[in-house]
Amino acid sequence: MPAGASESLGVANPVGGAAGTQPGARAWFVLAALCFVYVLNFLDRQLLSILAKPIREELHLSHGQIGLISGLYFALFYCLISIPVAWFADRSNRVRVLSFACALWSAATVACGFAATYPQLAIARMTVGIGEAGGVPPSYAIISDYFRPGTRGTALGLYNLGPPLGNALGVAFGASIAAAYSWRDAFLVLGAVGVVTALIVWLTVREPVRGGLDAPAAGQGPQSMAPFMATCRMFFANPVLRLVALATGANQFITYATANFATLFLMEEKGMTMEEVALWYSLLILVSMGGGIFLSGRLVDRLASRDKRAYALIPAVGLILAVPFFVGFVLAPGWRMAMLLAVIPMALNYFYLSPAVALVQEEVRPNERVMAGALLLLVMNLIGLGLGPTYLGAASDWFRAAHPENSLQLAFLTLVPFYGLAVLLFFMLARAIRRAAQEAGDL
């Protein structure tokens, strides 16, 4: 970026630029605004799975088709478009990129409400994926330039409450609107809210200085732009960054597969009604998923300063403890017992998100943060979002021939080995973190 470009883009140092300055009121306002955008991002993303039952019945879809449209088809566009969007955001006004992306995915959500056929719905969902590709990576970098090192784990933990809040509000409002009117109205109303929010963010959020709160040696100047290919090579050549992407991908394989079919599973095989889903399942998501994401952010801020391996060990231990409760959730005879047993794994399954994001943002230079965040999302979402729901839907269709009454239950049980794979990768990440610290002379 040439000298003076930051002024032309309306860039401002939000908290004075001193590394020791505590976040000010504007920083907290920006965090709240970006978190709300993330809420809408996840709400619109998960709305299809929340309303899967009425959509499936009206459009005559199989579990496999639901898995493809909410998984692979969405993820291909979401992940691949995120890379050029991140490259552009690193060289332009990140707030404006975020605002435009929010408007695009929200308009595409409205289009989902008008879909009359499976191909039309698929195209609308792909467009949602294109828009959402510009949502999270710029936000990671903006937050990292509003909050100094040592507070970013908490800030990103709060930001990462977007998924549970989006899921909970999507279930509560989406299911309520669908129960009272139709599933189409839910897409129309919630998409319109996103368009308005995009305009508000454009007008009220200021672009911060890149690296303004980092030590000077960390960034080699806040206006220097990192080359695209060099950043990609750096990311995948770094064992810590490579392993955090693979480990979180394996973890997201479980969480996205579960999230995209949990509502359908609870309604079709556990006897829940749409009204009960709107109340009880939304509360479960809000309390458990939100609590897990926030608690892990606080834990990593507290423990990583003593031992950086906490970035990997916190999610690994969480997954180990989650397994028996997850199996109990799947095998429970009714929805009430299933919901009770789901409280623990719903929290522990999400111990990976805040530590992973904070680790990546700390490992790279300020002018690489958007791109590094996009590369993290590329790997973990291609694996988790792309393959998790796709696999679970296909597995349910495969089991349906012999077990038509509980095909989803059997498909869910096949996720247990993926817990073991994710734990193994997190332990490998912990070893890589220790080795990198030894090489840097920090141990």
How would you sum up this structure, described in words?
The protein has 443 residues and is mainly α. The protein folds into 2 domains: 26-209, Growth Hormone, Chain: A (Up-down Bundle), CATH 1.20.1250.20; 226-442, MFS general substrate transporter like domains (Growth Hormone, Chain: A), CATH 1.20.1250. The chain is 77% helix and 1% strand. A two-stranded parallel sheet has the order 1-2. Helix 2 runs parallel beside helix 6 (94-112) and helix 16 (310-331) runs antiparallel to helix 21. It is globular, with a radius of gyration of 21 Å.
Layout of strands and helices, then pairs:
Blueprint: H1 5-8, E1 11-12, H2 25-50, H3 52-59, H4 63-70, H5 72-89, H6 94-112, H7 118-132, H8 136-144, H9 152-159, H10 162-180, H11 183-204, E2 207-208, H12 216-219, H13 228-237, H14 239-268, H15 274-303, H16 310-331, H17 335-348, H18 353-363, H19 369-400, H20 407-413, H21 416-439
Parallel strand pairs: 1-2
Helix pairs in contact: 2-6, 2-10, 2-11, 2-14, 4-5, 4-19, 5-7, 5-19, 6-7, 6-8, 6-11, 8-19, 9-15, 9-18, 10-11, 10-15, 14-18, 14-19, 14-21, 15-16, 15-17, 15-18, 16-17, 16-18, 16-21, 19-20
Top keywords for this entry?
443 residues, mainly alpha, Growth Hormone, Chain: A, two-stranded parallel ribbon
Count of individual beta strands? 2
**Helix fraction by DSSP (H/I, runs of at least 4):** over 70%
| Sequence of secondary-structure elements | HEHHHHHHHHHHEHHHHHHHHHH
Query: What Rg, in angstroms, do the CA atoms define?
Result: 21 Å
**Inertia-based shape:** globular
Strand order of the largest sheet: 1-2
Give the CATH topology of the largest domain: Growth Hormone, Chain: A
- Fourth-tier CATH superfamily name of the largest domain: MFS general substrate transporter like domains
User: What number is the mean pLDDT?
Assistant: 84
Distance between the termini: 37 Å
